[in-house]
């Protein structure tokens, strides 16, 4: 793990000290040191979290008499096998870092090198011979990478906050991306909340020459997956060897690792696998809530931890603990993203980071193997939704601000964008092959929208906010290809989810755990958003200049009263609060960093 950043200047040389503000903004991603490389108009910066080759893996890493240089964030899990292959092809290594394989693979094949890398990564590679910068991102978008192109420069970084200091002017808010956040809980696709700052997409390479000419290409896509006619026995035999190899690669580390353990199947399967791969008890962490009527998963997590004898820690959040994390999670997330699970992930990360640098999590199992309830709706429901909102087969059709009461809150710019909020889902659905099933269309749509731009934002940013690396084996591209290509009958029968994965896991995990009804990772925000906090919040938001610019605050009294009486306006109110805090941290006073324990109202101007 780490943070990367850099700059390409047209017609001017990059000075090393100009990269210092970027390094400072990424220090949380790499508390173990930093490095800089400059050559002419190209500059690379790196902040390091030392996981592999602790003593010798400092970056930038150079090769070919310094004509090649790379900075990378993440892990190349197959670096052992890849290094052996590259050495047989004549390459000579100077470190034991997994990231050095990127340089040598590129040197041998500048076009196809990324296809040899198995892992989660974002990298920036300087090619001094061809005078170009090569940016790349892993296949599923586990690691982030942003960039901005101006007439005289290209700026890139692992996080938006590191790009801002190198822009001549503060960028405007992109109304379309802001609207997407409100309607679908995140902005997804190339555009970010900052006009002109873009995401490099999952599985993409971007080449930039000294004149700022750009060439973008995609080296991997789930669209290449074909459906296979397998029965359970055939799939089981194949997956056993595949997942064993994936896990052996994922546990490669020169530092200890742990696991975030929910009450669900995916993290329980990981605990079973990790317990087989090490002799010491696995370090596990789970979270629950104090004084909430909503049932959490802590009991199930503690039971499965006992089954495998893990060294377990249970954390219990109070109402105050959760809300005082809001400013830090907004700062850590960078782009606006409303996922309440960010708060328990933040608390777990803070606890784990006190003794570990690497933690496994179970994200991706639902996308790969068809686990979500939204994938299993009655046929008549699908048909009705298709009629009301064509274009996505009845999937992802409704705004999260669907009530008329909520829509009255939009100012002119947001009202004008409302009709466009489904565009990313329409695009994804139309891309999927016509021969694919409804379920595969749903899986693909999630894989290229909500997964990289919401779920993985939570995993990467909340953990890296405390210098912690998250590893997600279910999102190894080989596992995703396997799961997406399974016949529907091995994913769901319309009632039960993830049929194949649960049957396969019966040999490792107790059956009574595997077949417990899935509840999802819920957080009692709706229940807890009330009382004096809600009263104070109404006053702060109603008077906030940024909120008043984008929303019609005349309708706030009805919104807040609905929350007091029915508790059904928490989503809208929470989005408004996030935006006000985000605006303070990224527009009004960029560079501020809240602690994980702050009164959220103090961060609303």
From TrEMBL:
Q: Would the keyword Repressor be found if you checked this record's keyword annotation?
A: no
Q: Which residues form the Glutamine amidotransferase type-2 domain?
A: 2-211
State its Enzyme Commission number(s).
6.3.5.4
Spell out the PROSITE patterns in the cross-references.
GATASE_TYPE_2
Listed under catalytic activity are: L-aspartate + L-glutamine + ATP + H2O = L-asparagine + L-glutamate + AMP + diphosphate + H(+)
Pathway involvement of the protein, from the record? Amino-acid biosynthesis; L-asparagine biosynthesis; L-asparagine from L-aspartate (L-Gln route): step 1/1
A Pfam family of this chain: Asn_synthase
Q: Which GO terms describe its molecular function?
A: asparagine synthase (glutamine-hydrolyzing) activity
Tell me where on the tree of life, at the top rank, the source sits: Bacteria
Keyword DNA-binding recorded? no
Keywords from the UniProt entry: ATP-binding, Glutamine amidotransferase, Ligase, Nucleotide-binding
Show the CDD domains listed in the entry.
Asn_synthase_B_C, AsnB
Give the family this protein belongs to, as stated in its UniProt record. Answer: Belongs to the asparagine synthetase family.
Extract the PANTHER family matched here. ASPARAGINE SYNTHETASE, ASPARAGINE SYNTHETASE (GLUTAMINE-HYDROLYZING)
| Stated name of the protein | asparagine synthase (glutamine-hydrolyzing)
Q: Which gene encodes it?
A: asnB
């Amino acid at each position: 793990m780490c943070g990367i950043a850099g700059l390409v200047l047209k017609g001017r040389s990059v000075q090393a000290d100009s990269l210092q503000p970027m390094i400072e903004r990424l220090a949380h991603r790499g508390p173990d040191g930093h490095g800089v490389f400059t050559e002419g108009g190209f500059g690379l910066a790196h902040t390091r979290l030392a996981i592999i080759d602790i003593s010798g893996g400092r970056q930038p890493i150079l090769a070919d008499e310094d004509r090649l240089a790379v900075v990378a964030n993440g892990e190349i899990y197959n670096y052992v096998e890849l290094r052996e292959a590259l050495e047989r092809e004549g390459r000579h290594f100077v470190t034991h870092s997994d990231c050095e394989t990127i340089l040598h693979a590129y040197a041998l094949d500048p076009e196809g090198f990324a296809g040899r890398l198995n892992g989660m990564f974002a990298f920036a590679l300087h090619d001094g011979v061809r005078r170009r910068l090569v940016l790349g991102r892993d296949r599923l978008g586990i690691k982030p990478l942003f960039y901005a192109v101006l007439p005289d420069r290209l700026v890139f970084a692992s996080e938006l906050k590191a790009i801002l200091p190198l822009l001549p002017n503060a960028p405007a808010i992109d109304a379309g991306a802001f609207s997407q956040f409100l309607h679908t809980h995140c902005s997804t696709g190339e555009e970010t909340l900052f006009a002109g700052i873009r995401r490099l997409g999952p599985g993409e390479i971007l080449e930039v020459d000294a004149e700022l000419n750009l060439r973008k290409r995609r080296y991997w896509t789930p669209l290449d997956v074909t459906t296979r006619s397998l029965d359970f026995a055939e799939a089981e035999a194949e997956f056993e060897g595949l997942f064993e190899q994936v896990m052996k690669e994922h546990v490669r580390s020169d530092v200890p690792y742990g696991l975030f353990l929910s009450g669900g199947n995916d993290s329980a399967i990981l605990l079973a696998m990790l317990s087989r791969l090490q002799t010491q008890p696995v370090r596990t962490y789970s979270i629950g809530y104090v004084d909430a009527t909503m049932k959490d998963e802590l009991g199930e997590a503690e039971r499965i931890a006992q089954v495998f004898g893990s060294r377990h820690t249970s954390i219990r959040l109070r109402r105050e603990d959760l809300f005082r994390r809001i400013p830090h999670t907004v700062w850590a997330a960078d782009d606006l993203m409303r996922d309440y699970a960010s708060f328990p992930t933040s608390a777990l990360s803070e606890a784990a980071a006190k003794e570990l640098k690497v933690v496994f999590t179970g994200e991706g199992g639902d996308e790969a193997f068809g686990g979500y309830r939204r994938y299993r709706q009655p046929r008549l429901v699908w048909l009705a939704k298709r009629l009301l909102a064509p274009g996505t087969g009845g999937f992802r059709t409704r705004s999260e601000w669907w009530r008329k009461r909520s829509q009255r809150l939009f100012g002119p710019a947001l009202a004008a964008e409302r009709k466009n909020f489904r565009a990313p889902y329409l695009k994804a659905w139309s891309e999927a092959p016509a021969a694919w099933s409804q379920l595969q269309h749903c899986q693909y749509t999630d894989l290229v929208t909500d997964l990289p731009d919401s779920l993985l934002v939570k995993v990467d940013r909340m953990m890296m906010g405390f210098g912690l690396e998250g590893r997600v084996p279910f999102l190894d591209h080989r596992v995703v290809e396997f799961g997406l290509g399974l016949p529907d009958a091995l994913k769901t029968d319309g009632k039960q989810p993830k049929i194949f994965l649960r049957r396969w896991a019966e040999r490792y995990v107790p059956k009574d755990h595997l077949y417990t009804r899935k509840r999802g990772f819920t957080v009692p925000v709706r229940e807890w958003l009330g009382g004096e906090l809600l009263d104070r919040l109404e006053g702060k938001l109603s008077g906030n200049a940024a909120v008043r610019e984008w929303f019609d605050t005349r309708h706030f009294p009805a919104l807040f009263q609905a929350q007091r009486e029915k508790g059904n306006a928490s989503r809208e109110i929470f989005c408004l609060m996030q935006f006000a805090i985000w605006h303070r941290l990224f527009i009004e006073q960029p560079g501020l960093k809240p602690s994980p324990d702050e009164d959220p109202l103090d961060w609303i101007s």
